[in-house]
Amino acid sequence: MLVPDKSALRLKDALKNYQIMADQIIYDLKEFYTQSIICPNCGWQGVGSDAIIIDMYGIGDVRQVNCPNCDNFLGGLPREEERKPETPDELSDQIG
Predict the structure, then answer these.
(1) Domain regions of the chain by residue span
(2) Which terminal CB of the chain, N or C, has fewer other CB atoms within 10 Å?
(3) From the CB of residue 48, how many other CB atoms can be counted at a distance below 10 Å?
(4) Which helix (H) or strand (E) covers residue 16, if one does?
């Protein structure tokens, strides 16, 4: 009888989790706050600005969007990109 080793099982679990992440909805940052959203779990309807946005202390590229009624995961929202100074004058304005 062939028994898979633990590393093969961990890989299988990791790939399963990756598939779940790949299938999630990623909302468009420019339209999210006015976009209509429906929770498939409880039927809540609202706009993105009404949803719960979970930011894990700035870790990762995507924030989590949850239903405000049942806390069901609804998708991801990209972080706003920080604008970098384009000229030395802008940089010195930021420094003080």
Answers:
(1) 15-79
(2) N
(3) 20
(4) helix 6-23
Inter-CA distances, 65 with 8, 32, 40, 73, 82, Å: 32, 10, 13, 6, 20
Q: Both tokens of residue 41? A: 């779990």
The one-digit pLDDT tens for each residue of the chain (96 residues) are 444 445 445 555 544 444 444 467 888 889 999 999 999 999 999 999 999 999 877 777 888 999 999 999 999 898 876 555 556 665 555 555
8-state DSSP, 26: B
Tokens of 13: 């679990």
Place of tokens 């993105």: 48
Tell me which H or E stretch contains 78: strand 73-78
Q: Are 29 and 80 in contact (CB under 8 A)?
A: yes
32: left (phi over 0), alpha (psi -120 to 50) or beta: alpha
